[in-house]
Amino acid sequence: MLDTLMLSRIQFATNISFHILFPSITIALCWFLVYFKVRFDISGHPVWMRAYRFWVKVFALTFALGVVSGITMSFQFGTNWPGFMEKVGNIAGPLLGYEVLTAFFLEATFLGIMLFGLKRVSSKVHTFATLAVAIGTSLSAFWILALNSWMHTPAGFEMREGVAFPLDWFAIIFNPSFPYRFLHVVIASGLTASFFIMGVSAYRLLKGDIKLAPKVTLKTALIVAAILAPIQAVVGDMHGLNTLTHQPAKIAAIEGVWHTEKGAPLLLFAIPDAENKTNHFEVGIPNLASLILTHDLKGEIKGINEFGENAPPVAPIFWSFRIMLATGLLMLFSAWIGCYQLFKKGAVKPFMLKLFVGMTFAGWIAVLAGWYVTEIGRQPYLVYGVLKTAEAVTTIARDHVAISLALYLLVYGFLIVAYLHTLFVMAGRAIKVDEFETHDPQADGNLTHVNNIEEGIKL
């Protein structure tokens, strides 16, 4: 039977898993909106305004769910994890406060103008409001990831009678893992939003939408995805090397290395066996893990057994990492193939459009898998090397936590279904809008128009 600790962990994981879905879209989606609005201001071409007006509605829907789920999640610091604020509240509290004072106030101030001021203020003021909200979403990610990164690589503090006190706020904010984690998450948002836009735009085209706007948005997102995917691979590798330095137990679990060894293979497939501390059915590339992590074919990687009771669970980390990696590679190759068809063949083929629809939420899969690698890999610590998870959990009765968990699952299940339904209803209504557009070479010379879906969509 699950105890209070495990139920509280599952409950927080449920909340963060649901919440992170929406910021992973909105952080980058708002920058797409800035681009659409600036292009309209510069060119005056109505297609950019039509793209903006559709996607700003999607942004509003997504942003609202992110805010609501974020507020709910913050309550759990008091209800489920009182020991967290008791021990490190002197650091966590100010960082969360900075997010409210900068990001949240900026978003709250300009969001109304962005959503409802299009016909009430000048175009420049409206564009500035959109830019301010985009900056606010990025600032929010900055402060939240500063805190999360500090929990993984704590720095700039000292412990006094079991309580953390800040000594150097610069060291706290820009802790050793923060630059890599921040870049990794922001680029992940860019990829998530890109495939989100590509999927919905491709859906509209496949359903017979002959207007120019979905072609423009598909082309824009496709190019962004093709650029960001290889950059993410480089940043991810840098993040992995940083993790090897500061959290070697996590790397051991990712690679499925139970015993310290030189020339460790890169395992493509294995079934980790925690009881016997080994892997079954291994399929790997000899020496490659050592080469990637140490830049030496015979480089040494510490095994999980080296960390004793402080080792994280292996199987969920091992598999989550491979799901993240496989999804990322699929995103990379599909974006490149789409760009090849666009620029070399002159049209994105129908089978690629169908693939893009299927990958509308591919970013969610990669983000969740990566988040599980990060957070499960920190166990058994809440703040790595400082505060264990079991030391911070509530004393509330197990049954009470179980009831609240069940309610969260029920509500979140309803909300995600409602969100997906609303999203595609919005896309369907956009298809039916009687807004047939003709190509204007002087307004945008790269955009062409075809009606025959079987020939492919020329963007």
Q: How many H/I helical runs? A: 15
Number of strands: 8
The helix content, as a percent range, equals 55-70%
Give the overall shape: globular
Low-confidence stretches: 436-455
Radius of gyration: 24 Å
- The average pLDDT value, as a whole number, equals 88
Q: Gap between N and C termini, in Å? A: 56 Å
Indicate how many domains the architecture comprises: 1
Largest sheet: 2 strands, antiparallel
Strand order of the largest sheet: 1-2
Order of helices and strands: HHHHHEEHHHHEEEHEHHHEEHH
The fraction of residues assigned to DSSP E strands is: 5-15%
Structural class by secondary-structure content: mainly alpha
Q: How would you characterize this protein structure?
A:
The structure is a single chain. By secondary structure, this protein is mainly alpha-helical. It has one domain (4-255, 315-455). Helices cover 69% and strands 7% of the residues. It has 15 helices and eight strands. The chain has helices at residues 4-21, 23-43, 46-79, 82-116, 123-152, 169-173, 178-206, 213-246, 248-255, 288-294, 314-345, 350-358, 362-376, 389-392, 398-432; strands at residues 157-160, 163-166, 261-262, 266-273, 278-285, 300-301, 381-383, 387-388. A hairpin with a 4-residue loop joins β4 and β5. α3 runs parallel beside α8 and α7 runs antiparallel to α8 (213-246). Mean pLDDT is 88; it is low at 436-455.
